[in-house]
């Protein structure tokens, strides 16, 4: 079954609510929050990043759609953004404001009900979360699900495995080869007959999500609808802005088969290059590739994993458990490059002290130490080591972090340093 051709055609939305994972992503989140408190910026190119001064160093955190139209994108140095769009309004990053807006969005999502089911919300970041239906309160006593976890993917033979759903394709308008934007639709919750337009229709619920988030926060979001997390996450990009999109086993190949492998969540430029060296450029080519070759070239674990990714397979378990960080890190971009490596070592020690305070706040020890170093003009290297034993001792952590400097070339000026401490798992694991 693993390599069977998926049934083609538009996605069948006549499934029960337990079939679906939704991915909610705020549109141009940071810029949108800024525009809310400065309405005069609406419609203007807005760039949020660093301390808001494009003559200084720093990178773009979020650009408004108006700025994106000029080629400004996240991660771009502010100075380049200013060159591409000189008329843009540059604003400093204001974390407390985004934390507050994010908390409001997540609270709104958690308060939703889908056809009588409470929902589970798995926060992925400031501006994105997976949402799925949990068992109805009445069902919980039957042991169908535990509180705080979606029943999607639980107790099903195909959970996290290949998509052997055996869906019956239902032909229906609105989901062609072009990414459709589903119009606003209001669905009265309460009924439960599956079918297009009914309360179980994920597009109806997606519209409700966008409506409620907008009401509560004045922020617009897009909603990806998938039969697993991977497809939901990718679907969001097709729904943007202010829309939703359905991506399932049925339309996977049709929608993204021709796209480069980089379109997949989990494939970065490094992996894309490795795949290209094997003659695999597109998602379809990855899906049809020989899993043995992938295993031989990319490793016995990662090879098959990428193969499944190409077919859009992935897990569907949405967990409402609070997020437990695996690591803490801090980094600094210097306004003037550091040329003196004694000074570089001193900065590494100072950063380590700040990160140690972060892990102390969680009461956990560090097990691994990582160093990030960016040379002038912009090339970045990372190094890391596992400590002989987990520790919270500052001097030991500083010595370990500084020792990583011996593993980089000390022949160029440094514009950025970062230190990361990976912690031991909490009792009971992640
Ligand atoms: Mg977003």
Automatic annotation (TrEMBL):
GO terms for cellular component: cytosol. It catalyses: DNA(n) + a 2'-deoxyribonucleoside 5'-triphosphate = DNA(n+1) + diphosphate. This is DNA-directed DNA polymerase. The lineage of its organism: Bacteria, Bacillati, Actinomycetota, Actinomycetes, Propionibacteriales. Pfam families: IMS, IMS_C, IMS_HHH_1. Signal peptide: none annotated. The keyword Transcription does not apply. Belongs to the DNA polymerase type-Y family. It comes from Nocardioides flavescens. PROSITE patterns: UMUC. CDD domains: PolY_Pol_IV_kappa. Its EC number is 2.7.7.7. It comes from the Bacteria. Residues 21-268 form the UmuC domain. It is found in: Cytoplasm. Poorly processive, error-prone DNA polymerase involved in untargeted mutagenesis. Copies undamaged DNA at stalled replication forks, which arise in vivo from mismatched or misaligned primer ends. These misaligned primers can be extended by PolIV. Exhibits no 3'-5' exonuclease (proofreading) activity. May be involved in translesional synthesis, in conjunction with the beta clamp from PolIII. GO terms for biological process: DNA repair; DNA replication; error-prone translesion synthesis; SOS response. The keyword Heme does not apply.
């Amino acid at each position: 079954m693993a390599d069977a051709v998926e049934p083609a055609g538009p996605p069948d939305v006549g499934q029960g609510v337990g079939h679906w994972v939704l991915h909610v992503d705020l549109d141009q989140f940071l810029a949108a929050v800024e525009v809310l408190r400065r309405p005069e910026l609406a419609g203007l190119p807005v760039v949020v990043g660093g301390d808001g001064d494009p003559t200084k160093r720093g990178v773009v955190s979020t650009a408004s759609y108006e700025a994106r139209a000029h080629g400004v994108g996240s991660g771009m140095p502010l100075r380049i953004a200013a060159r591409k769009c000189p008329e843009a309004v540059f604003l400093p990053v204001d974390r407390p404001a985004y934390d507050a807006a994010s908390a409001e969005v997540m609270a709104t999502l958690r308060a939703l009900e889908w056809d009588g089911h409470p929902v589970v919300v798995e926060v992925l970041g400031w501006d994105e979360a997976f949402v799925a239906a949990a068992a109805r309160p009445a069902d919980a006593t039957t042991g169908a699900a535990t509180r705080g976890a979606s029943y999607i993917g639980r107790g099903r033979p195909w959970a996290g495995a290949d998509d052997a759903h055996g869906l019956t394709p239902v032909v229906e308008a609105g989901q062609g080869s072009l990414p459709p934007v589903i119009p606003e639709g209001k669905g009265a919750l309460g009924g439960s007959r599956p079918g297009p337009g009914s309360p179980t229709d994920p597009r109806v619920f997606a519209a409700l999500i966008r409506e409620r988030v907008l009401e509560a926060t004045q922020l617009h979001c897009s909603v990806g609808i998938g039969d697993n997390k991977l497809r939901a996450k990718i679907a969001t990009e097709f729904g943007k802005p202010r829309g939703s999109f359905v991506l399932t086993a049925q339309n996977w190949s049709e929608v993204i088969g021709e796209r480069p492998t980089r379109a997949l969540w989990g494939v970065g430029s490094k992996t894309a290059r490795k795949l290209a060296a094997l003659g695999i450029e597109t998602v379809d080519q990855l899906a049809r590739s020989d899993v043995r070759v992938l295993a031989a070239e990319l490793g016995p674990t990662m090879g098959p994993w990428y193969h499944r990714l190409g077919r859009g397979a992935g897990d569907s378990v949405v967990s409402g458990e609070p997020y437990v960080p695996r690591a803490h890190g801090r980094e600094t971009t210097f306004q003037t490059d550091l040329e003196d490596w004694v000074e570089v070592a001193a900065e590494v020690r100072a950063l380590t002290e700040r990160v140690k305070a972060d892990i102390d706040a969680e009461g956990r020890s560090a097990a691994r130490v990582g160093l990030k170093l960016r040379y002038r003009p912009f090339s970045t290297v990372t190094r890391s080591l596992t400590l002989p034993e987990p520790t919270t001792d500052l001097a030991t952590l500083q010595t370990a972090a500084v020792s990583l400097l011996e593993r980089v070339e000390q022949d160029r000026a440094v514009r950025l340093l970062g230190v990361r401490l990976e912690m031991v798992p909490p009792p009971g694991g992640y």
